[in-house]
Input
Amino acid sequence: MTEHDDRRDRRDYERGLPGYHDPTAEFAGSSPARSALTLRIVLAGFGLAFCTAAAVLLIISGLTALGVAFAVLAVVALVDLSWVIHRKRRGEPG
Output
């Protein structure tokens, strides 16, 4: 029995993955979707900067619970930013 290797390399992403986001793309005739990774990087970077600044200011001013909530949102933005940068470095277009 042979193993099927589903790993993709940079060339696969540079060519584009037809129907990657829409499994019915070939049947319905819709064009393959392209992810807006650069826009996600900008938005996640803004969210990270804003939430970090808000968390620091709120904790300093004594609103600890709200500051912690913004700190959690900053961590979520950091995780999203690092994942999108990983996808861009892997070679996905967008």
About this structure: The helical segments are 10-15, 25-28, 37-60, 64-90. The chain has a mean pLDDT of 81. The CA atoms of residues 55 and 71 lie 5 Å apart. The chain has one domain: 10-90.
